[in-house]
Amino acid sequence: MKHIIWDWNGTLFHDIDAVVGATNEVFRPYGVAAFDHDGFRAAYTRPI
Question: Is the dihedral of CA 45, 37, 33, 6 positive or negative?
Answer without folding.
Answer: negative
